Amino acid sequence: MSSTLESDAVAATLNRLLAAEDKQDLAAEWAAAGIDLTGEFPARMSAADMAERTKDIIMSVSRKGGELLYLLTRAIKAQTVVEFGTSFGISTLYLAAAVRDNGGRQVITTELQQDKAREATKNFAAAGLGDLVDLRVGDARQTLRDLPGQVDLLLLDGWLDLRLPVLRVVEPRLRPGALVVIDDVDLDIGRGVYEEFRDYIGDPANGYLSVTVPVHQGVQIALKTG
């Protein structure tokens, strides 16, 4: 039996987006946005300002990272998934395809930048998965406060310094056995600001067991134990 991920509409949409991402010169794109990735992170600007400056940059999981998301979502039979950091919707498509194949409910995702949110919505429709996606525009610390029922999987792929605050917003809804998936954990930026998150998710006393796998720029997978 083929998966939704292999359907013509989903495959074509993902191939188009991933090809566009591959063509980017990220160093030049970030420099043009006035953000020095070799300097202090977070940059001395608000999340909204950073989002506006980087509105044309595709920031998403790799193809292998997306396939891992699909497999993890299927493996735990996730019905409700929450995502922090939509961008143009690549990771959302992998998650939504898995939720559809699980016979599940929805992917709740959030994006701060309105232009990206509009493009992501078009991509969900092109892939035939728009009915499964609840895209909320705004600050994730606010947009994710109202969640229906229990959450089976949380993807943290937004700004590094906001991952712990967003985790704490969603955490009360994570069911025992839920997964928290964190992308780009091996990046050379944000190590100082990210240490608090690493310490929190890495401490079993906080109710997580985790492992990092060498997919693209590092993916950490944490199990909510209680």
Ordered list of secondary-structure elements with their pairings:
Blueprint (H helix, E strand, L loop, with lengths): L7 H15 L3 H7 L14 H7 L9 H13 L4 E5 L5 H12 L4 E6 L2 H14 L5 E5 L2 H4 L7 E6 L6 H8 L3 E10 L7 H11 L6 E6 L5 E6 L2
Parallel strand pairs: 1-2, 1-4, 2-3, 4-5
Antiparallel strand pairs: 5-7, 6-7
Helix pairs in contact: 4-5
Description of the molecule:
With 226 residues, this protein is an alpha/beta fold. The protein has one domain: Rossmann fold, CATH 3.40.50.150. It has helices at residues 8-22, 26-32, 47-53, 63-75, 90-101, 114-127, 140-143, 163-170, 191-201; strands at residues 80-84, 106-111, 133-137, 151-156, 174-183, 208-213, 219-224. Strands 3-2-1-4-5-7-6 form a 7-stranded mixed sheet, sandwiched between helices. Helix 4 runs parallel beside helix 5 (90-101). The longest helix is centred in the first third of the chain and has 15 residues, at 8-22. The radius of gyration is 16 Å and the shape is globular. The model has no long low-confidence stretch (mean pLDDT 91).
In short:
By secondary structure, the chain is an alpha/beta fold.
Question: How would you describe this structure in keywords?
Answer:
single chain, Rossmann fold, alpha/beta, 226 residues, 9 helices
Please state the CA-atom Rg, rounded to the nearest Å.
16 Å
Q: Report mean pLDDT, rounded to a whole number.
A: 91
Which CATH class?
Answer: Alpha Beta
The total count of strands amounts to 7
What would you say the CATH architecture is? Answer: 3-Layer(aba) Sandwich
What's the helix-strand series?
HHHHEHEHEHEHEHEE
